[in-house]
Design brief:
Layout (H helix, E strand, L loop, with lengths): L2 H8 L28 E11 L10 H18 L3 E11 L4 H18 L2 E9 L3 E11 L14 E5 L5 H10 L6 H12 L5 H6 L6 E4 L4 H12 L2 E5 L7 H4 L3 H10 L6 E5 L4 H10 L4 E8 L3 E5 L5 E2 L8 H4 L1
Parallel strand pairs: 2-3, 7-10
Antiparallel strand pairs: 1-4, 2-4, 5-8, 5-9, 6-8, 7-9, 10-11
Helix pairs in contact: 2-3, 4-5, 4-9
The structure holds adenosine-5'-diphosphate and magnesium ion.
Length: 323
């Protein structure tokens, strides 16, 4: 199978954008995409490297899902509607079984979110997947990291914060999980659900947002820095799955606060928006939990359920610090 057969069979064949939205898709030197009137483009890239972002044990179908999911999560964090994506793929050989699974996982998620594959690049090399997503939001309405205001509530989406990290620790052998717990945690790690509907529902309600890819503390820290504010977090208010709750409290806190790979949204919103937020969350089928508030004093302060200050000395996931 040559490069062009591969592209045709596993990617072009599954990409059927409407001629109105995408007059030129895969097959020419560039894709041509029609913007929607009154909208701005939001563009983001995320790369997945074997051994760094995924383990060789992951099923190809889940890898296809995750490669797009982490990119959709960035669009969600900005409140954008997904439109199109490109796929730059480096792989050691044209492994048909791998490509079929990868393509299945990729296009299942693409179809679920109405985003179209419009181009890419394919080359032989170490397994490496880079996706660029393009989405749209009404002019001036994109959610940014820089909008948090003193007095805002801090929320996080979902119910499995920390599970992906727990799975990683199980793979590393530092924790032992019973089979069913391992499967659930592994699913959180390998099959994150990007909060695309919630992100769009937050436009006009949230003052700031980010998606949690490197751990809650670090990613909320980006909001605080960009907004020139601080925050207090009620650590034991973080949503936790039944799986995580079966771990010691210290492990629950560490995974929830500094886990990474969660792909939940952290956002801030004024207290006056609380009822509208609850309705938006319900309409998008995503749980949200208030976990703290924004304060004037810079930095992040952690408290337990009794209101006692915690010093957990946590930091977020940093690829270069780790190396
Ligand atoms: P060029 O040499 O002009 O860059 P290529 O030969 O690399 O074009 O690719 C041919 C066509 O296939 C282009 O439209 C490109 O966008 C598309 N393409 C290549 N690889 C992929 C891929 N992995 N997924 C989707 N489209 C791809
Ligand atoms: Mg090329």
């Amino acid at each position: 199978m040559g490069e062009f057969d591969l592209i045709q069979r596993f990617f072009k064949e599954h990409s059927r954008p409407s001629a109105e939205a995408v007059p030129v898709g895969i097959g020419d030197d560039c894709a041509v995409i029609n913007p929607t009137a009154g909208m701005q483009w939001l563009v983001s890239s995320d790369m997945l490297v074997e051994g760094r972002h995924f383990l060789s044990t992951v099923a190809p179908e889940r890898l296809g899902h995750k490669a797009l999911a982490v990119n959709l999560s960035d669009l969600a964090a900005c409140g954008a509607r997904p439109r199109a994506f490109t796929l730059a793929l480096s792989l050691p050989r044209a492994d048909e079984q791998f490509l079929a699974g990868f393509s299945r996982g990729l296009f299942a998620l693409a179809q679920a979110h109405g985003i179209e594959l419009v181009g890419g690049d394919t080359t032989a090399g170490p397994l490496n997947i880079c996706i660029t997503v393009m989405g749209e939001a009404p002019r001036g309405q994109a959610l940014l990291r820089s909008g948090a205001k003193i007095g805002d509530d801090v929320y996080v989406s979902g119910t499995t914060l920390g599970d992906a990290r727990l799975a990683l620790e199980a793979f590393r052998g530092t924790v032992r999980l019973p089979g069913e717990d391992f499967d659930l945690a592994r699913q959180a790690m390998e099959c994150p659900q990007p909060r695309v509907a919630l992100g769009q529902a937050l436009r006009g309600l949230a003052h700031s947002a980010i998606d949690v890819s490197d751990g809650l503390v670090g990613d909320l820290g980006h909001i605080l820095k960009a907004s020139g504010v601080g925050a207090r977090l009620e650590v034991d208010a973080l949503p936790r799955s039944a799986v995580l709750r079966r771990q010691p409290l210290a492990m629950q806190r560490e995974c929830g606060l500094a886990g990474g790979d969660d792909y939940e949204l952290v956002f801030t919103a004024p207290a006056a928006a609380a009822a509208q937020l609850a309705a938006a969350a319900a309409a998008s089928g995503t749980a949200i939990t208030r976990i703290g508030c924004i304060e004037a004093e810079p930095g992040l302060r952690l408290f337990d359920a009794q209101g006692r200050a915690l010093d957990l000395g946590l930091s977020s996931f940093d690829h270069f610090k780790q190396a």
